[in-house]
Specification:
The model has no long low-confidence stretch (mean pLDDT 87). By secondary structure, the protein is an all-alpha fold. The two termini are 29 Å apart. The longest helix is centred in the middle third of the chain and has 38 residues. Helix 5 packs across helix 11. The chain is globular. The chain contains 17 helices and no strands.
Amino acid sequence: MMNSFGKYAAQYPHLVRLGVPITVGQLGTIVLGFADTLMIGHHSLQELAAASFVTNMFTLALLFGLGFSYGLTPIIGRLYGQGKAHEIGVALKTGLAAGAVLTLALIAVMSLLLLNLSNLGQPEELLSLMRPYFIVNLVSIPFVIGFNTFKQFFDGISRTQVPMVVMLTGNLLNIIGNYLLIYGKLGMPEWGLFGAGVSTMLSRLFMCLVLVVLFFRRRTAYRTGFMQAKVGREDFVYQNKQGWPLALQMGMETAAFSLSSVMVGWIGTTALAAHQVMLTISQLGYMLYYGMAAAVAIRVSNYHGRQDYACADTTASAGFQLILLLGVAISVPVFAFRHVIGSLFTDSGDVISMVSMTIIPFVVYQFGDGMQSNYANALRGLSNVKPLVYVAFLSYFVITLPLGYFLGIYLDAGLVGIWSAFPFGLTVAGVLYWLCFRRTLHKEACLI
């Protein structure tokens, strides 16, 4: 028993060292989102409404791009485990080429939406605010994709602290830029919502350029491989095969929550407000799990490169244990303060009461959410990402959304009913990802 525990415990420090910087960087992004909302809201209620619509439209596109970039991490992690620094530079260049194609596709889709803003049923008085804000977000897409790609490089070689520092610095600069350009301070123009967009675009440009400079500033085998590389068709196709399933998985998971919001809107304003509070609370758990699960992907990819599948299995199990501890750390205080936590966001007694009831299914689904996050990333570490698409479709579109409609709308259980569907979908995803991971490990080990 002690030897078994020691086997897992030996992985804890490595996972924490890799996972904490990723988590801190992601939490910084959440704080930035809150700061943006507060600053814009204090300037104008109309601008806040316009920002909400545009931001929601871009969130799915940017998460799609983020998921695509995740396909690069296990490739670099595997090469890093094999000590192939030159080939890592080649993989990064191919990743940038694949990211460039994705960038063009996202710009084309979002440009089409921009041209049809007036046909989407939005208030006429908000369109003049939406369009400039939409355009600056559109311009920043290449910087986001570029940053994500270089971030996967640094994550893949286990230098997760570098993107963390860059993200936190960029977020701080964005908040300062918001203050100057939204309100027109220190002689700057008072641009309101448009100023917030410009500040965000400049911070994204800054973060991308810093990682580029850090990569090229020293003569390394990574840089040499990058400079000498030619983007080959086989490598390009392989990176797309790794990236698109991850993009689709993240897109479907995000869409499950987005489409649930549509059903909540059918219930009423109070339910929609409580739903928004619950989404905000749930982000905390997701980001904590994500940081640790990303560390699992990195460590598993390293062991995959060394063909050490016993350690890959141990790492995935140790990661899940740590995520369960995080789940308990989140669930206990949230459940204990469920009757008052809603008051942090609103004075409405009805909303606070609804939040307190909805926290129960939220606590229940932490197990499934942690499990699916851990083993989806463990599969990513083994570069077996195709099952993620099928499992995500089954879990979120076949189970979660129809069950949410049945419980929340048909049985009239309201918001609690809709949220009660998430434990089922997330747990099914977690179990299926775990089974796929075990099968992939066995198959890989038999090929040695």
